[in-house]
User: Fold this.
Amino acid sequence: MPKRPQPRFPEPNSQPFWEGVREGELRYPTCDACSEVVFYPRLHCPFCGSRELSWKVSRGEGSVYTYSVVRQNRMPGFIELGAYSVAYIDLDEGFRMLSSVVGVDDPTRDIHIGQRVKVEFEPQEEGDYPIPVFRPI
Ligand SMILES: [Zn+2]
Assistant:
């Protein structure tokens, strides 16, 4: 199977996120000044402008905010998947991330808004970063 797209470094905004993924953790930054969750990861807080952020580890559980199903993707790395979902997941810690719901027989039937899901890390080729995806719980 061809390679999935991978992050490129140096990438100071998201590198701690990807290092967490490699260690089996879903990390997210919060603002030390106003306590807001900052996701997608950035070097500053979009709510108050502070650059004092701390990384935390999510429990990896949340619910499907919305989703779509890609029935055919001819891009290398996706062509052999068949139909797959692209989903926004609301994590319990208060951030929303774009990912995919996996482990269902038919993504056109078996995924629902509000469905509870948990993160898992899909292994890639040796040395590549795993891809965080979500499975119904
Ligand atoms: Zn802030």
Notes: The first helix runs from residue 15 to 22. The helical segments are 15-22.
